[in-house]
From TrEMBL:
<keyword id="KW-0067">ATP-binding</keyword>
<keyword id="KW-0436">Ligase</keyword>
<keyword id="KW-0658">Purine biosynthesis</keyword>
<comment type="pathway">
    <text>Purine metabolism; GMP biosynthesis; GMP from XMP (L-Gln route): step 1/1.</text>
</comment>
<dbReference type="GO" id="GO:0003921">
    <property type="term" value="F:GMP synthase activity"/>
</dbReference>
<dbReference type="GO" id="GO:0005524">
    <property type="term" value="F:ATP binding"/>
</dbReference>
<dbReference type="GO" id="GO:0005829">
    <property type="term" value="C:cytosol"/>
</dbReference>
<keyword id="KW-0547">Nucleotide-binding</keyword>
<feature type="binding site">
    <location>
        <begin position="29"/>
        <end position="35"/>
    </location>
    <ligand>
        <name>ATP</name>
    </ligand>
</feature>
<keyword id="KW-0315">Glutamine amidotransferase</keyword>
<keyword id="KW-0332">GMP biosynthesis</keyword>
<protein>
    <recommendedName>
        <fullName>GMP synthase [glutamine-hydrolyzing]</fullName>
        <ecNumber>6.3.5.2</ecNumber>
    </recommendedName>
</protein>
<comment type="function">
    <text>Catalyzes the synthesis of GMP from XMP.</text>
</comment>
<feature type="domain" description="GMPS ATP-PPase">
    <location>
        <begin position="2"/>
        <end position="199"/>
    </location>
</feature>
<comment type="subunit">
    <text>Homodimer.</text>
</comment>
């Protein structure tokens, strides 16, 4: 019979058997899947595992700190943090095309990850070789990549943090038989905090694909502020489970006229995209309370400089995708 405890126990035994005395690395994205996979492998092989977190500067407010502090505190994992903001931003400079952005982010991620891997080997050269790569692949991912869902033709998804496909490693995929809700139960069993286990999905390319237009540091900071306000209000209103996720999008190349205080403004719109979904393959826009929308709108226009309008996306998927890019 299926119990979370027995799944953990069996996985730990299987990981020990597979990895033996060799070493493994795991990319952390801040998402649920890579966190739970890493915690399981850590439980099985301890310090033979090193986690790598690439801070590409496209994360939301507080996310890097969450990985660096909460995750390490909960698991005691060995963590290597790579600061790569400048590298990613200069690679993205001047680029507005969504697919091009996705490809650049995926490519840079793999390069940084390879570099980190080489450093780990160099730091402890006498040790056992690093032969294994831990990935948070779930059962639906396995089915999707075998069955082909067609979405791959729409957007090139980069599971940044868990998917350096062209690296030469043996894979450790302890979540291959689990669904998302089961992964959350395993994470809870392993003692991971709710802020990690109950997290809503967030795309690997991060805020880079939530700025329609060129990605710059200023725009990222602005979007981070708007996004933090929306998340705070949604959480305060108790909507985190009803809403599958709520991308907050900056229309960086659009300006509209507004009036604030005693003057004219000419600022950017922020789009709220709250969706309800079972599996992200299809989605409906969430009919969320007007008073919550009003609070988010008032706060974003008051608190975020250069934003003078907040609009609501009322498109289902299909025809709209969840993310704007
Ligand atoms: P779309 O926009 O295709 O998104 O309707 C479906 C789900 O996937 C997430 N998403 C991504 N996740 N890497 C990821 O790990 C990606 O490149 C990526 N692009 C979209 C999106 O947030 C939604 O949950």
């Amino acid at each position: 019979t299926w119990t979370t405890a027995s799944v953990v126990e069996e996985s730990v035994a299987a990981i020990r058997e597979q990895v033996g005395s060799k070493r493994a690395i795991c990319g952390l994205s801040g998402g649920v899947d890579s966190a739970v996979a890493a915690a399981l492998v850590q439980k099985a092989i301890g310090d033979q595992l090193t986690c790598v977190y690439v801070d590409h500067g496209l994360m939301r407010k507080g996310e890097s700190e969450q990985v660096e502090k909460d995750f390490v505190a909960a698991t005691g994992v060995q963590l290597k943090v790579v600061e790569a903001e400048e590298r990613f931003l200069s690679a993205l400079a001047g680029v507005s095309d969504p697919e091009e952005k996705r490809k650049i982010i995926g490519r840079e991620f793999i390069r940084v990850f390879e570099q980190a891997q080489a450093e780990i080997v160099a730091e402890a050269p006498g040790d056992q070789p690093v032969e294994f790569l831990v990935q948070g692949t779930l059962y639906p991912d396995v089915v999707e990549s075998g069955g082909g869902t067609g979405t791959a033709n729409i957007k090139s998804h980069h599971n940044v943090g868990g998917l350096p496909e062209d690296l030469e490693f043996q894979l450790v995929e302890p979540l291959r038989r689990l669904f998302k809700d089961e992964v959350r139960m395993v994470g809870k069993q392993l003692g991971l905090p709710d802020e990690i286990v109950q997290r809503q999905p967030f795309p690997g390319p991060g805020l880079g694909i939530r700025i329609v237009g060129e990605v710059t540091k200023e725009r990222l900071d602005l979007l981070r502020d708007a996004d933090a306000i929306a998340r705070e209000e949604l959480t305060a209103a108790g909507l985190d489970t009803e809403i599958w996720q709520c991308p907050v999008v900056l229309l960086a190349d659009v300006r509209s006229v507004g009036v604030q205080g005693d003057g004219r403004t000419y600022g950017h719109p922020i789009v709220l995209r709250p969706v309800s979904s079972e599996d992200a393959m299809t989605a409906d826009w969430t009919r969320m309370p007007y008073d919550v929308l009003a609070r988010i709108s008032t706060r974003i226009t008051n608190e975020v400089a250069d934003v003078n309008r907040v609009v609501l996306d009322v498109t289902s998927k299909p025809p709209g995708t969840i993310e704007w890019e």
